[in-house]
Write a structure and sequence with these properties.
Elements (H helix, E strand, L loop, with lengths): L4 H4 L1 H8 L3 H25 L6 H8 L2 H33 L5 H17 L6 H28 L17 H11 L19 H30 L3 H7 L6 H46 L5 H4 L10 H11 L7 H30 L7 H23 L3 H21 L13 H5 L1
Helix pairs in contact: 2-8, 3-8, 3-9, 3-14, 3-15, 4-5, 4-14, 5-6, 5-11, 5-13, 5-14, 5-16, 6-11, 6-13, 7-9, 7-11, 8-15, 11-13, 14-15, 14-16
InterPro entries: AA-permease/SLC12A_dom, APC_superfamily
Protein name: APC family permease
GO biological process, one term: transmembrane transport
């Protein structure tokens, strides 16, 4: 979860929702917080890595768990793609004469080369970069408020949350894209081994990460939307809505602030892209090492660099899909895996209560906590899943079908147990 996530998609969501970005954030926060409720319950029972994969495997079936893990793999493999795309969007706003593909290919070559060589960003450096992004976001908010109060455009009202002209279908479609802002809140579950009281503290941490992050995104989006309450106002400042945020930075703070803003954006893209590619390549290595994928290729480690070179190059090649996808389609493709995982986390709570939990009692509290609330969370996530971009849905469903076919092959027609997917490999990296 990056502070810059709010800036990445503001323009296209403003266009899609006709100036109701905060309303879309409220809807996605509802889906996330219901899912957080389910994560809290499952983390107490299964405080291990893998989250949706583990929960589905333990409560429903190992075969279905494998399929969910396969779909989640989609996020790991394509996260470098979205970071390369954001690099192009931010830099093209400042250097419009440079072909966009140069920024995409350049970013992919940079992070692939760093990962092949085994370069890692230290935790302390990551914390500094996040703090830097928060500082820039705070300055961005202050400048936006100043411009709204003293300028000739913008006004404060409740219209970004609700107006007579608001179309709920487009607001839900916007929410389906904004899930990208929350990806990673469940990573807290991987810290169970380092936590003194994981069954108590991990669930609380999951809630705080999602809730505080959501409040941040909601507040910043409202302030930005107040300055540009409709599409026509934003289009004057940024004709290309994908590049809205860097153009807004220029409008509110001049070229100096735009340069500082872009510095924050690039550090976010490099750090996130590097970490995403590292996790994806290590997960493929674990699958190759354990025989889930071909060991000769996916289980290979370079003798000099001690890195899974083939996997790093493969994830780099997959990131090149940024050359062909729109921002809407790219974010939807990432969120295909996220909404699928979150839907099954909610279902896992229900199945855990009905099939696994031994000391269950059908009281009003248990029925609400283990059945009604998770089912509402499932419905929210499933509905947002249905609102994803059609081309991304097609790609996601094809990926799922390939996973199902591969599962049938591995289990010899479901006559043997599917192999394990070791998500701890990617999360530890």
């Amino acid at each position: 979860m990056s502070p810059y996530a709010i800036f990445d998609t503001f323009g296209i969501i403003t266009e899609l929702t006709d100036g109701h970005v905060p309303a879309s954030y409220i809807l996605v926060m509802i889906a996330v917080l219901f899912t957080v409720f389910s994560y809290r319950k499952m983390a107490r029972v299964y405080p291990t890595s893998g989250s949706a994969y583990t929960y589905t495997k333990k409560t429903m079936s190992s075969g279905l768990g494998f399929l969910i893990g396969w779909i989640v793999l989609l996020d790991y493999l394509f996260l470098p793609m979205i970071n390369a795309m954001f690099t192009k969007i931010y830099l093209s706003a400042v250097f419009p004469s440079v072909p966009g593909w140069i920024w995409i290919v350049g970013m992919i070559i940079l992070i692939t080369g760093m990962n092949v060589a085994g370069v890692k960003v230290a935790v302390s450096a990551n914390m500094l970069m996040v703090a830097f992004q928060f500082l820039i976001a705070a300055i961005f908010v202050i400048l936006t408020l100043r411009t709204t109060i003293t300028g000739e455009v913008g006004y404060f009202s409740l219209d970004p949350f609700y107006s007579v002209s608001m179309d709920f279908s487009t607001v839900f479609a916007g929410a389906s894209i904004l899930m990208l802002s929350f990806l990673g809140f469940d990573a807290v579950t991987t810290l169970s081994d380092e936590t003194e009281n994981p069954k108590k503290d991990i669930p609380r941490a999951i809630f705080l990460v999602a809730f505080l992050g959501g409040i941040f995104f909601l507040a910043v989006s409202y302030i930005m939307q107040s300055l540009f309450p409709d599409l026509s106002a934003l289009a004057v400042v940024s004709p290309d809505l994908e590049e809205a945020s860097p153009n807004i930075a220029l409008y509110i703070g001049g070229t100096l602030f735009q340069a500082i803003f872009l510095a924050g954006a690039l550090t976010a893209c490099i750090a996130s892209g590097l970490a995403g590619q590292t996790s994806g390549s290590r997960l493929l290595y674990a699958m190759g090492r354990d025989g889930v994928l071909t060991k000769k290729i996916f289980g290979f480690v370079h003798p000099r660099y001690a890195t899974p070179v083939y996997n790093v190059i493969l994830t780099g090649l997959l990131a090149c899909s940024a050359l062909f996808l729109s921002l809407h389609a790219a974010t939807s493709l990432i969120n295909f895996g996220a909404f699928t995982a979150f839907s099954f986390v909610n279902l896992s709570v229900i199945f855990y209560f009905l099939r696994v939990k031994k000391d269950k009692t059908y009281t009003v509290g248990s029925v609400i906590g283990y059945m009604i609330v998770p089912f509402i969370g499932f419905l929210f996530n499933a509905y947002l899943w249905l609102n994803l971009d059609s081309s991304a849905m097609t790609l996601g469903l094809c990926w799922s079908a390939a996973g199902l076919a591969y599962l049938i092959y591995l289990t010899k027609g479901f006559t043997k147990a599917p192999p394990e997917i070791d998500f701890s490999e990617s999360e530890a990296s």
